Every structure is written in structure tokens, then in C-alpha cells.
Amino acid sequence: MMYDFFPVPVYSTDLKLDLKALTDFCLKREQDDAGVSISNRGGWQSSEIYLPVEPLSGLVKNILRSAESYRKIIKYKHPLKIANLWININRHKDYNVKHRHPNCVVSGVYYVNMPSGSLILYHPAENVLEYDWGPDVVSKYVGYNSSLYSLNPTNNTLVLFPSWLSHSVGPNTSTENRITISFNLVR
Fold this sequence. Notes:
187 residues; 21% helix
């Protein structure tokens, strides 16, 4: 018998939001906000966006609805609410380094425009896996032996994952802006 102990729950759903309105909002916000530099290398990351604000109300409703589904799947006792939310605009070659979101329960990202790049999720035992189960002894990488997974979302995709899960964002190899809205959920 094979047991799947300690799985990492990553949730993805496609939304049907107005991408033009969200793109315009994000680009306008960039003009009005000097932004911050946290995990981004190049590109622009907004300051925290205080809700409610249009045109984010539809996105917020979808985040909370998806968070409720995720909460039930992971059997988390408490309802989740948005702690903070921000915009990322990555231009050609911009990326985000490996990081986590401490003091939160669930983190997520919504893809407004995703021309290229991956959301890279790292196994919690990444260092041990790479040392003991490297390419010299593994014939094929699968969920049981991979130290990382590259998720390639498309426009209008919402992804949720545990805030303790290390992740990064690969370089934007396109000349088109990669625009995402990231957030953290707490109880």
C-alpha cells in the first residue's frame, strides 16, 4: 500500500473577470504609487492596496469564495479573510526571488496578464530531496521525488497555496508586461 502523507495543497481555478479593467487599474496604480521592493528583482510591486476599491470587488469575491473552498479541503477551522493585497508588474527579464509569507495562513496570486514565466513551488524538504534523490539516482521526476514544481497559469487564473510554502516567479521572457495581483489570507 502506498500512503500519501504530508501532501501540499495547491488550489487553482479559472475566473471570468474583466481583464481590460483590471489591467488598466494596475497600470494606473503603477503611475500613482512608487511601490516597494520585497521579493521582486526588477519590475514593480505596489504598496498594499486597502479594500474595498474598484474594480477589485469581483476579484475579492472570487478570492473569498475560493478561500472558503480551500479552507474546507484542508479542514481549517476558521473562516479566512484578506490580510493584504498588492500588484506585481514584471517586464522583460524581471522575476521574484524565493520567499514565503510568514504570519499568514494561505497566500495566492491572480493572473491578469501572463505572457511568460512560472510560479515555482518548492517542496518543504527541498534540500534533502536534492541531496539524496538527485538526477543521478532518479529516473523520472514525479510528485514523490521532485524538489520543486513549476506551475504555468494563464490569464484569469487564481492560485492558492499554504503561506509557509517557499515559492518564486521565473523571469518574464516576453516583452509584454506580466501583471499579477497577490494577496495573503488570515483567520
